[in-house]
Specification:
Elements lengths: L1 H7 L10 H6 L2 H8 L16 H30 L6 E5 L4 H11 L9 E5 L9 H14 L7 E3 L6 E3 L7 H19 L10 H7 L6 H7 L1 H9 L5 H7 L4 E6 L2 E6 L14 H13 L4 H15 L9 H6 L1
Parallel strand pairs: 1-2
Antiparallel strand pairs: 3-4, 5-6
Length: 320
């Protein structure tokens, strides 16, 4: 029934949340069972679980993994020398992004599953959570600022989306991968970030196709303009003299992109306007930022690829 509803959207997905399960589930007992093949676990039925329960599952899952890595670090230290039991980042305030990117790139995947500790160079203090929180606040502010030119906030929706770039630089792609890792680390370490990313991004991270409704949330004005095309007569569309091309600003350069093969010679008509709208939506969410999103997802997956995150809905993931 849940699978059928996912396809036909007859009722809200929240209608399947089971209050009795969410109230009485013993998450600390259920999560270990979920990792054992053929074992009965409520975690195997995510459609029954509320966002709060799923968030707690991810927290317990992370604690278990952190504890495992901590124990493994002590054992490795006994046989191969000193091994740090934590993921330690030592960063300078005036070089926060570059320092973090450099250090994360040097870490092994197993190191990223350790508990995060942050130290600001030249400052005393033990990270008991406050330093970590400040670190995330500062670095998220930096990577989403116009200074780095990788995201832009829509004036109306305030959602951030990737700036379209035909040939993003290696630095821009590294910063995109870092951003994905930061969001993954925040989820893994149960840190709530003050960022405005649209459901479309979480859909793409979960492998769910985006559509026109997602454009309405990200860029209401563009969505309105495109849907107005459906109301025009054939003569009015012809008078627009519009081809299957879109112009966009690429770091100060005006570029043109064909929405379909031979788009520059294909005129917009009443017969193909549906295809024009869908192609434009695809440009916004896919082709205009394919390389940027690939790096972002690679960074996120480096932390969360095996997490219970993959069983969440986009709207639930957004709440994390």
């Amino acid at each position: 029934m849940n699978s059928y509803n996912n396809t036909h959207k007859l009722v809200p997905y929240s209608a399947f949340y089971n209050d009795a399960v969410n109230e009485h589930i013993d998450i600390k007992e259920d999560v270990p069972r979920f990792r054992i093949p053929e074992s009965l676990s409520f975690c195997s039925y995510p459609f029954l679980l509320s966002p709060t329960t799923k968030s707690e599952i991810i927290r317990v899952e992370s604690v278990i993994l952190m504890r495992t890595e901590l124990q493994d670090s002590f054992f490795r230290a006994m046989f191969s020398g000193v091994t740090c039991p934590y993921l330690v980042l030592e960063v300078r305030r005036d070089s926060l992004v570059r320092d973090t990117l450099y250090q994360l790139d040097l870490k092994l995947s197993q190191d990223l599953r350790k508990q995060l500790k942050v130290r600001f160079v030249g400052e005393e203090g033990v990270d008991e959570g406050g330093v970590q929180k400040e670190f995330f606040q500062l670095i998220v502010r930096d990577v989403f600022s116009s200074k780095y030119g990788i995201f832009k906030a829509n004036d109306e929706s305030q959602y951030h989306w990737f700036l379209p770039q035909a040939n993003p630089t290696s630095d821009a792609l590294e910063e995109m991968r870092l951003t994905g890792q930061l969001i993954g680390l925040a989820v893994y370490n149960a840190v709530i970030l003050d960022i405005h990313l649209p459901p479309a991004l979480y859909k793409k991270l979960l492998g769910i196709q985006v559509d026109r409704d997602d454009l309405r949330e990200v860029d209401p004005a563009l969505y309105h303009g495109l849907t107005q095309l459906l109301l025009l007569s054939a003569e009015e569309l012809e008078s627009l003299e519009r081809t299957f091309e879109v112009e966009y600003d690429d770091m100060g350069l005006l570029r043109s992109h064909e929405l379909i093969p031979n788009g520059a010679q294909t005129m917009l008509t009443a017969d193909n306007r549906e295809m024009f709208i869908d192609s434009y939506v695809d440009f916004v969410f896919n082709s205009s930022c394919a390389r940027q999103f690939a790096e972002f997802k690679a960074g996120f997956d480096r932390i969360c690829s095996m997490s219970y995150v993959r069983f969440m809905r986009p709207q639930e993931l957004e709440l994390l």
